[in-house]
């Protein structure tokens, strides 16, 4: 794709156009370069070049290659007028410069006045046409400018109609024929797809009896207007898909070279400028008409070795003709084709092509060791498990994805999927090829390279990325890894930036075992042909091309992608709505496509096993594998491959393959080994059970649990390390969620030996009828060790039936996760809670251990800190895995509970903080049926002994006794009112303590106490109480905005609203994590979220389950604000709020609740801030909503000096702060007459953006988060003077929030920082907030909060805070760049 062209390098390319932009016409002209724009290094008064008119912009290409090409987007053109016959005057506020010195560097955007003046003078460009007149240019240019400002759907319709009219009037110029004797056979309209299908050139395809011609609609290159190739040198014609539609046709051309000079004799030049060409037709009928005409030509492929017969065979091979497919597979089985050649054949046969980035050939990762100094290709640990897709290589990530898949089945309108991204996408392909084709990456990413730390920097880092926790990184490799090595070198000296560790991005960092890029490629080729890969490659083929690609087999193999990735799943032509169809086509092109399914049954295994040797450092890659790939470029590879296949099938003709698989390959097959391991585990369990029975009969001790553990450990043979944990035990742990698994595994490992000893001790008296005292005596050492352990960690309740030792022993041998089932078992004997782990003897001790291990389990999908339904209808708070397993009742000052009378058999003892779900097990169901415990009768353990490592717990004063039980409110108030009342109680709680102190001391002491004991509505000790609860998956694209709101139901429920870079809005129920709404509301990325509640608590109508959701307002890159109703699940309207992307939306006035709640009311206004520098206020009163108006007008408008990235406003809307892209914070009063000057402005940093702004509730200070990694506190009473400034980590900060006492800020590394701003307002002398358990540093900073493991390293783009519906706590929601939402809460460890 990148090396097949024989034409010279040229500066202007259709790659420079925007997505969806079309080329119209070009004119020779001269230009007067504005003095305010850099680039005219010679200061010439006029410079010659070409003026190129496109549908969305004007391009000026100077003849001097040292001067950059200039793009003038019509979106920012303020005027276009003529002067005289040939002079065109264009005034614009923005200029995009590209390809200066013909280099592929990031585009440079210059604005009028460089953003320094509030109302800069526009830039004026003057063009003098050399030959054309204005009457032939102006009407067309003005039409394009007007069309560029239409809504997206209307704009697309206009442009398509314009281009269709131009194409309909085009005819092939017969003057371009090579010979007047040629006979015309077919002329059709077609589109040539080039540059990886990023460039689409409409034109005319002509077939004569001698040659194939293509004449583009516009001759952009300036070279020959027509491309042609002799039919005798057309090697193959293969049908292809384009955007999942069967409209493509790929032609492969044989090119003359030094070794094939005879081609020039049989085929006269000129030849096509590339080894292949991909065309798209308007209909399948036209495509088939072209195929039929070409196939009927007797001269087709006559110049090839083998003539027309070879050309016919080439086409059949590349189209996966069934007879050829079986022959090629048999040749591979016998070893006549290498693994590399066979994989390349499967790619091409399934429709993959080097001419389309969305269908680029895919190759597997085969190595898993990128850290060792040397490789051992005979060791299975060196290789990746080819029976699993990349997304399933990390068991923790797979567990999370499977949970999301199960949740999606219940609420998502589209079919559920495991992976939102594909293993092969244009972005992933260009991730690998950024050094080889930088212009393509600039085209994909709007003129910018990615962040240096997100580029392809090292092979080992890339492997860690695809096997890490990011659910969106599931990319496989491309053929270049096995066929060439130059793409690993920065031979163009591209400026790719500097990483955060200070290292510049240059050549790709290779593993320690690779001596050079060529040696690295040679080792990969050798690894691909190694015995382990030959034994398992058929599994990977099943996943990508075969029977496990779709259906139930794909689900069992963890291989399910979005339904739009599969052929035939979407009828694009059947979508009537143009906007929806465009969005669907964009999704298909950008999110990847599965190859055409070639096999419906299991693929056979290879039957040969060549030895594997690591090539020496000076080995050439071509020597490692040979075959078609040796020395062939990407586009020439298909024909070289076909030649290899033809030779291999001729060599193996008449030879039937052996049906048996060699023993060595069978032993290396991971599926065979997995089945063997399962059989061994089953046999070990049966043997352990039999040994246990024999031991009981012989009065001897045994441990079935230990035998099972040993069997599981012995089953984990020499598999790669990232699969060694795939045992039945680890499978049960993964089902609990990653965080619970880690905690339970840690405790289980610590107690494994002691638990086994106690169980051994229990088994002996159980069989002989010995007493409990004897059991304790036998295991006294273990019991004492365990008792001391639990005394340190706090007591754990036990569920022990005082019936018989045998019953106790049976309970002790239950798995840890089944403890609640034992607790609820029916019994006629009264149960009573032991006052210490040893109170019930060894049986009580073991049950206590089981209970503690089980306390780390939650019902599936239940998040810690969330209310869950207990027995008898009571509501409890689920425990947080990051806190010690203490009873929720331990927060209350309750007395120890004595033994119950014998008639209280219905009472079930359990951990008070462990969720008791009604259908958890059969035992718990029986308990529920018996009416075991009501919410008022439920009993708990006594308070734990004092512990030095925990903060003191005290009653919250909320009326529930601090038990952690959330009772349903009987009032009729809305959820928003309840939360606002709770927030006021939290504030008044701090004020009440201050008033008490003031009454008992002097005024000076009262003032000091006031400063010392301010807590803010976040509550006391936020840093110590705040802990990660769960992660919500919200797609694979970056989360740019998020919000929290409480929705009224039978009890208040909290919902998370997130806006992603893909244009999708998602709604999640916070407690439980399920997604209840997902909708694509914009074709462009969404930037921000605001929630609007209608007066009286009305929202957007009834939602799922009868809830009333707020109306969601989202800013977008398309310069619009979109209004979405979660209740109806649709977008209710939108309006254009600016001329550039709307970066921020915020509601002011109307008495909106703080902390991330909703705002509403007749006086509420919407504040929008845009990258064009405008700040605007919009009325939201009934009947005046801008999205419901035909001509919306803002109530006020203010112009900031440059693009606005962050905004904050006082509740009454009287003060608005704007943070700009150049580090300026400016204050405005919208109530004053419009003025070009702000109230005040303050430059905080140079040439970088303000990431977040937040006003303190007092209105006298503001917190600013900046891209230089600093947090600043501004005093608004002194024109924004900087009171304090800290740098938490050095990483750029993107968002912040504050309650006036503490401030939260998220950075690009995924960390959350806490800053005591009240201490800074007190001049640095203030104490920590009341109840703080960890004092801040002198600068007010607390230690940062590490993100959830799945969000580690993913930037925090947005932040939302609000009081928890559980009462007495705060919930924090962070939106991350990897498409995930992280929920943190203080409920599980609240101090009040």
Automatic annotation (TrEMBL):
InterPro entries per UniProt: BEACH_dom, BEACH_dom_sf, BEACH_Domain, FAN-like_PH, PH-BEACH_dom, WD40/YVTN_repeat-like_dom_sf, WD40_repeat_dom_sf, WD40_rpt
Pfam name, any one: Beach
UniProt feature, compositional bias: Low complexity: 796-812, 820-840
Positions of the BEACH domain: 317-606
SUPFAM superfamilies: BEACH domain, PH domain-like, WD40 repeat-like
Protein name: Beach domain-containing protein
Region span, Disordered: 608-629, 677-730, 796-843, 915-973
Highest taxon listed in the record's lineage: Eukaryota
Domain BEACH-type PH per the UniProt entry, residue ranges: 181-295
Naturally occurring in which organism (per UniProt): Chlorella vulgaris (Green alga)
């Amino acid at each position: 794709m990148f090396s097949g062209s024989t034409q010279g390098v040229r500066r202007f390319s259709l790659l420079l156009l925007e997505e969806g932009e079309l080329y119209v016409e070009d004119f020779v002209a001269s230009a007067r370069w504005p003095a305010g724009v850099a680039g005219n290094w010679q200061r010439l008064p006029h410079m010659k070049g070409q003026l190129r008119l496109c549908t969305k912009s004007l391009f000026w290409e100077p003849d001097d290659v040292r001067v950059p090409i200039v793009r003038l987007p019509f979106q920012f053109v303020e005027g276009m007028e003529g002067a005289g016959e040939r002079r065109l005057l264009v005034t614009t506020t923005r200029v995009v410069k590209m390809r200066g010195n013909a280099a592929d560097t990031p585009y440079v955007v210059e604005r009028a006045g460089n953003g320094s003046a509030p109302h800069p003078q526009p830039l004026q460009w003057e063009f003098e046409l050399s030959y054309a007149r204005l009457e032939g240019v102006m009407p067309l240019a003005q039409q394009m400018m007007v069309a560029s400002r239409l809504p997206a759907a209307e704009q697309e319709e206009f442009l398509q109609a314009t281009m269709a009219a131009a194409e309909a009037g085009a005819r092939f110029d017969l003057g371009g024929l090579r010979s007047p004797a040629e006979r015309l056979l077919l002329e059709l309209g077609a589109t040539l797809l080039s540059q990886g299908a990023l460039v689409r050139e409409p034109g005319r395809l002509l077939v004569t009896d001698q040659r194939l011609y293509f004449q583009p609609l516009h001759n952009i290159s300036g070279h020959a207007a027509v491309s042609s190739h002799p039919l005798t040198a057309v090697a193959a014609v293969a049908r292809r898909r384009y955007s999942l539609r069967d409209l493509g046709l790929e032609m492969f051309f044989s090119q003359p070279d030094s070794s094939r000079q005879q081609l020039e004799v049989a085929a006269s030049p000129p030849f096509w400028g590339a080894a292949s060409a991909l065309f798209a037709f308007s209909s399948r009928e036209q495509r088939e008409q072209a195929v039929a005409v070409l196939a009927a030509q007797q001269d087709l492929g006559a110049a090839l070795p083998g003539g027309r017969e070879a050309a016919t065979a080439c086409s059949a091979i590349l189209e996966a003709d069934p007879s050829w497919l079986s022959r090629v597979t048999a040749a591979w089985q016998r070893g006549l084709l290498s693994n590399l050649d066979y994989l390349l054949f499967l790619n091409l046969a399934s429709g993959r092509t080097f001419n389309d980035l969305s269908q680029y050939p895919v190759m597997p990762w085969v190595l898993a060791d990128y850290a060792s100094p040397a490789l051992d290709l005979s060791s299975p640990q060196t290789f990746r498990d080819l029976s699993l897709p990349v997304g399933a290589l990390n068991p923790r990530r797979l567990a999370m994805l499977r949970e999301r898949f199960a949740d999606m089945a219940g609420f998502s309108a589209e079919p559920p999927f495991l992976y939102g991204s594909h293993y092969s996408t244009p972005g992933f392909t260009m991730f690998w090829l950024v050094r080889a084709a930088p212009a393509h990456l600039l085209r994909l990413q709007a003129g910018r390279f990615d962040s240096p730390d997100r580029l392809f920097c090292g092979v080992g880092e890339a492997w860690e990325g695809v096997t890490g926790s990011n659910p969106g990184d599931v990319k496989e490799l491309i053929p270049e890894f096995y066929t060439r090595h130059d793409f690993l070198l920065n031979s163009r000296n591209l400026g790719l930036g500097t990483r955060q560790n200070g290292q510049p991005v240059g050549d790709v960092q290779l593993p320690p075992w690779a001596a050079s890029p060529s040696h690295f490629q040679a080792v990969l080729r050798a690894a691909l042909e190694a015995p382990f890969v030959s034994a398992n490659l058929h599994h990977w083929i099943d996943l990508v091309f075969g029977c496990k690609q779709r259906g139930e087999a794909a689900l069992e193999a963890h291989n399910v992608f979005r339904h739009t990735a599969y052929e035939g799943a979407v009828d694009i032509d059947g979508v009537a709505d143009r906007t929806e169809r465009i969005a669907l086509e964009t999704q298909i092109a950008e999110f990847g496509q599965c190859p055409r399914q070639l096999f419906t049954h299991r693929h056979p295994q290879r039957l040969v096993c060549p030895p594997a040797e690591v090539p020496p450092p000076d080995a050439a890659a071509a020597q490692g594998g040979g075959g078609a790939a040796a020395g062939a470029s990407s586009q020439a590879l298909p024909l070289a491959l076909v030649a290899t296949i033809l030779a291999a099938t001729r060599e193996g003709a008449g030879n039937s393959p052996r049906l048996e698989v060699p023993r060595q390959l069978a032993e290396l097959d991971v599926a065979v080994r997995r089945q063997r391991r399962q059989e061994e585990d089953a046999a070990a369990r049966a043997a352990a059970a039999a040994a246990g029975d024999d031991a009981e009969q012989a009065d001897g001790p045994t441990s079935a649990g230990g035998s099972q553990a040993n069997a599981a450990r012995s089953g984990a043979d020499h598999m790669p390390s990232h699969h060694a944990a795939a045992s039945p035990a680890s499978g049960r742990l993964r089902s609990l969620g990653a965080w619970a698994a880690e905690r339970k595994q840690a405790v289980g490992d610590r107690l494994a030996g002691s638990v086994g000893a106690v169980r051994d001790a229990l088994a002996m008296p159980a069989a002989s009828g010995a007493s409990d005292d004897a059991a304790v005596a036998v295991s006294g050492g273990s019991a004492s060790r365990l008792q001391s352990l639990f005394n340190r960690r706090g007591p754990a309740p036990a569920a022990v039936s005082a019936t018989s030792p045998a019953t106790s022993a049976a309970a002790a041998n239950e798995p840890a996760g089944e403890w609640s089932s034992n607790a609820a078992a029916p019994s006629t004997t009264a149960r009573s809670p032991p006052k210490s782990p040893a109170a019930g003897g060894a049986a009580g001790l073991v049950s206590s251990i089981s209970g503690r291990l089980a306390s780390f389990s939650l019902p599936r999908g239940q998040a810690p800190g969330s209310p869950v339904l207990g027995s008898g209808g009571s509501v409890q708070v689920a425990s947080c895995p990051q806190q010690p397993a203490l009873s929720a009742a331990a927060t209350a000052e309750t007395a120890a509970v004595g033994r119950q009378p014998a008639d209280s058999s219905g009472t079930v003892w359990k951990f008070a903080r462990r969720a008791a779900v009604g259908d958890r097990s059969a035992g718990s169901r029986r308990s529920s049926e018996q009416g075991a415990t009501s919410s008022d009768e439920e009993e708990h353990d006594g308070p734990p002994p004092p512990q030095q490592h925990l903060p003191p717990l005290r009653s919250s004063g909320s009326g529930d006794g601090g038990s952690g039980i959330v009772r349903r409110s009987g009032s009729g108030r809305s959820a928003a009112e309840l939360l606002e009342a709770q927030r006021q109680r939290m504030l008044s709680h701090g004020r009440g303590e201050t008033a008490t102190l003031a009454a008992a001391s002097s005024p000076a002491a009262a003032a000091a106490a006031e400063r010392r004991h301010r807590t803010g509505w976040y509550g006391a000790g936020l840093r110590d109480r705040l802990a990660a609860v769960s992660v919500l998956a919200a797609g694979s694209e970056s989360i740019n905005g998020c919000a929290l709101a409480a929705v009224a139901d039978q009890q208040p429920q909290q919902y998370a609203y997130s806006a992603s870079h893909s244009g999708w809005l998602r709604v999640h129920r916070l407690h439980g994590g399920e997604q209840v709404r997902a909708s694509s509301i914009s074709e462009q990325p969404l930037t921000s979220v605001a929630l609007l509640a209608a007066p009286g608590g009305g929202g957007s109508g009834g939602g799922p389950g009868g809830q009333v959701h707020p109306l969601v307002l989202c800013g977008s890159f398309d310069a619009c604000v979109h209004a979405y109703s979660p209740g109806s699940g649709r977008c209710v309207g939108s309006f254009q709020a600016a001329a550039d992307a709307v970066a921020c939306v915020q509601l002011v006035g109307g008495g909106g609740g703080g902390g991330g709640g909703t705002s509403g009311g007749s006086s509420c206004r919407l504040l929008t801030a845009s990258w064009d520098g405008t700040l605007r206020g919009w009325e939201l009163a009934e009947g005046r909503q801008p999205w419901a108006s035909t001509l919306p007008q803002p109530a006020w408008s203010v112009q900031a000096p440059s693009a606005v990235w962050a905004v904050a406003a006082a509740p009454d809307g009287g003060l608005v702060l704007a943070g700009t892209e150049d580090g300026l914070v400016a204050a405005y009063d919208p109530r004053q007459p419009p003025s070009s000057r702000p109230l005040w402005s303050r430059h905080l940093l140079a040439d970088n953006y303000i990431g977040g702004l937040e006003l303190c509730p007092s209105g006298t200070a503001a917190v600013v988060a900046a891209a230089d990694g600093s947090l600043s506190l501004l005093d608004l009473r002194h024109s924004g003077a900087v009171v304090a400034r800290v740098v938490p980590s050095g990483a750029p900060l993107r968002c912040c929030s504050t309650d006036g006492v503490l401030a939260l800020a998220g950075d690009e590394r995924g960390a959350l920082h806490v800053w005591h701003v009240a201490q800074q307002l007190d001049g640095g002398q203030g104490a920590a907030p009341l109840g703080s358990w960890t004092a801040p540093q002198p600068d007010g900073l607390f230690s940062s909060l590490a993100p959830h493991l799945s969000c580690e390293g993913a930037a925090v783009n947005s932040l939302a805070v609000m009081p928890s519906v559980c009462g007495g706590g705060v919930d924090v929601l962070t939106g991350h760049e990897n498409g995930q939402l992280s929920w943190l809460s203080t409920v599980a460890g609240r101090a009040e």
